[in-house]
Write a structure and sequence with these properties.
- With about 120 residues, the protein is mainly α.
- It is about 70% helix and about 0% strand.
- The longest helix is centred in the middle third of the chain and has 27 residues.
């Protein structure tokens, strides 16, 4: 089976795994939170791999913009998992694992953005 180029990116694979994990974890959240934190956290988690995929079909400059959007979604997940922990929806170990994943994804998004930079022409 042929794959799209973005599917070969480690950061894309990790972002998909993160989103899947968020879906599994939030299944256990209280029903009262389904239209609140569950919805917001799922949308933010889905936004990460979605923006990587969509941006990969664009120019380097546009791709970098989509990676910035994905990075914003990573940052959006941080307070959502913090609030989830403080409300007792997830425990400290779950929080720590999710936070570490977000940190890794953030670092990989930044590295990918740097790799897209076109060096300025040197004067001769």
């Amino acid at each position: 089976m042929r794959r799209f180029n973005f599917e070969n990116l480690d950061v894309y694979q990790e972002a998909v795994e993160f989103a899947v994990r968020i879906y599994l974890i939030t299944k256990n959240f209280p029903k009262a939170e389904w239209f609140g934190i569950v919805s917001q956290l799922r949308r933010a988690a889905l936004s990460i791999p979605s923006n990587i995929a969509e941006g990969s079909s664009r120019t380097k400059k546009q791709f970098a913009h989509f990676l910035n959007i994905a990075l914003g979604s990573v940052y959006e997940c941080v307070p959502l998992i913090e609030i989830s922990k403080r409300q007792g929806f997830i425990d400290q170990a779950c929080f720590d694992a999710l936070y570490a994943e977000l940190h890794r994804i953030s670092a990989k998004l930044n590295a990918l953005k740097r790799s897209l930079s076109v060096p300025a022409k040197t004067r001769q």
